[in-house]
Amino acid sequence: MKSNQALHSSKLLAGRRKFLTTSAAALGALSLGAYVSESPARASRLASEKLRIAAIGVTGRAGANLGEVARLGEEIVALADVDDNLMAKVKDQHSGATCYRDFRDMLDKQAAKIDAVLVGTPDHTHAPAAAMALRLGKHVYCEKPLTHTVLEARTLNNLAKEKKLVTQMGNQIHAGDNYRRVVEIIQSGAIGKVSDVHVWAGAQYSGAKFTAAEAPAGLDWNLWLGPAADRPYSSDVHPFQWRRFWEYGNGALGDFGCHFMDLAHWALDLKAPTSVEAKGPPVDSVSCPDWCEATYEYPARGESPAVKLFWYDSGRRPELLKKLSHSKTKPADWSGGLLFIGSDGMLLANYGDYVLFPEEKFEGYKLPAETIPRSIGHHREWTTAIRDGGTTTCNFEYAGALTEAVLLGTVAYRAGKKLDWNAADMKFTNYAEAEPLLHKEYRKGWTL
């Protein structure tokens, strides 16, 4: 696979590198926007009254998040969606909310009335929406993956810390009891020192092609594009198939990496990989691949050894699953999950279950004491932390590092080369030519 499949012409590469350098310099300073502090009066009101929430995106996962927060009794004061047809499905459920097409107008005009913001747009507009809300001093809940590019993830992480705001990424499985028990088992040393973990997801997003068509009535296609390149409306993009396009999503790895790699990052205290390598079919400039396999290398952490994490998607699975047997399940049939390989055993897990190997060794195994409190609910964690000044389990510091790692896999695939990563400097030490893939150039009128 040749790297120029993904990096296009040398002229474009030079321009994007210049843009990335400029963006990184701005990120390092991060003096954008005034800090909006919590006054004692405002903090007191938040503790005793309903939170005033604005939502960007209103159906799909965005709608689910909106419904969860409304069920908690919070006040939905404003809604923004680029599609009038989707807005029509939910606005009557939130009759007190003011409706907008452009989230920038909503945040500008409603800033004084908003405490917090839900972001549930397609991936390519997560960062512009979340960054604007954070700079206005609003607490933010943003769907996974946190961002569309690595640089965007680092920016939101830094902004949330600078502004001292409560944030949560929407990988709801993190709140489940099963993930918490698996983390406790791994960290108790039940399977010994973990050196390898295999992670896979059955989802496949590929075959994307831009096909010019007439935009549906009620859809503001220009606003839907947001920071992406200006182009005519294309069929099979909105409202969901955008995940197949590099312009708007990052395929199966981008979609499910933040769910499944989350458990590995949590249990093994992983942060930034030191290298990433990925393979798949020849790179297409428009469409995400039919399949992708990636290998991440993470450094040792204290007494914990270095870890290799292997990713598989689109129905591919680790060969080792075929060799495992258990009386309660057939590992080779698991369509998505993780296999932790330790010096004293193995653990197979998915969203709702786990199994220890070898079976005879762990017969009658007694779980370690519960050290991770059961979640009060992924959305309630966020609203409660806003009220009491606490934190969340998937705040943007944790979620930003996780998202960066996930997206580095897509960068390595598109670059066609093993990449050595210096996370502190956000540089590839062996192949600077891939650095433009850490971010993208925004269309005029859109900012990070």
UniProtKB/TrEMBL annotation:
Residues in coiled coil: none
Signal peptide (from-to): none
Gfo/Idh/MocA-like oxidoreductase bacterial type C-terminal domain: residues covered: 208-298
Location of the Gfo/Idh/MocA-like oxidoreductase N-terminal domain: 51-170
PROSITE patterns: TAT
Gene3D superfamilies, per database record: Dihydrodipicolinate Reductase, domain 2 (3.30.360.10), NAD(P)-binding Rossmann-like Domain (3.40.50.720)
Full protein name: Oxidoreductase domain protein
Pfam family, one: GFO_IDH_MocA
GO molecular function: nucleotide binding
